[in-house]
Amino acid sequence: MRFDRKPVRTAIPVIDRQHDQYFDAVEYLFDMYERAEVIPDKVLGILNNIQEYAQDNFDTEERFMENEGYPGLDHHRAKHDTFKSSIDGFMEDFANTSNLAKIIEDLRQLLVSWFVDQIKTDDMALAEFLKKKGYGSRS
């Protein structure tokens, strides 16, 4: 599965780079799953990459929101916290189960949902707000 990244370009380079990191990790996971080549060490590496993305991207976005007085900060931060908790839960589940296929299927659902519910909606609203404040390109 490939994500169409063009509709979710924010024109804010640091955020777009972080989103690309997320998409790369998710696409790699999906490719492994679709080829039935799920390797536990690689899945763990992907989960670690997603945790790094979450930390970096969420810190960046929240710093922008705080500095610019974004009205949706509390809601956006709560969604970030929920996502981080979910990924932490997958890390724990991964360490304590032999049913890797079930974990990956549930993880796939979360990751697609995050793309649709967060990146395509909330992050794009934040990007529009930040563009009005002078961030990003004005093409």
Explain this structure.
It is built from 4 helices and no strands. Helices cover 77% and strands 0% of the residues. The longest helix is centred in the last third of the chain and has 33 residues, at 100-132. With 139 residues, it is mainly α. It has one domain (11-132): Four Helix Bundle (Hemerythrin (Met), subunit A) (Up-down Bundle), CATH 1.20.120. The chain has helices at residues 13-34, 40-68, 73-95, 100-132. Helix 1 packs antiparallel against helix 2, helix 1 (13-34) runs antiparallel to helix 4 (100-132) and helix 3 (73-95) packs antiparallel against helix 4.
Blueprint (SSEs and pairs):
Layout: H1 13-34, H2 40-68, H3 73-95, H4 100-132
Helix pairs in contact: 1-2, 1-4, 2-3, 2-4, 3-4
H/E series: HHHH
Give the mean pLDDT: 91
Percent of residues in helices comes to over 70%
Radius of gyration: 16 Å
Q: Which outline best applies?
A: elongated
Number of domain units: 1
Share in β-strands: under 5%
Give me the number of helical elements.
4
Described by strand count, sense and barrel closure, the largest sheet is: none
- Overall structural class, as computed from helix and strand content, comes to mainly alpha
- For the termini, the CA-CA separation is 29 Å
Assign the CATH class.
Mainly Alpha
Query: What would you say the CATH architecture is?
Result: Up-down Bundle
CATH homologous superfamily annotation: Hemerythrin-like
Low-confidence stretches: none
Query: What's the count of strands?
Result: 0
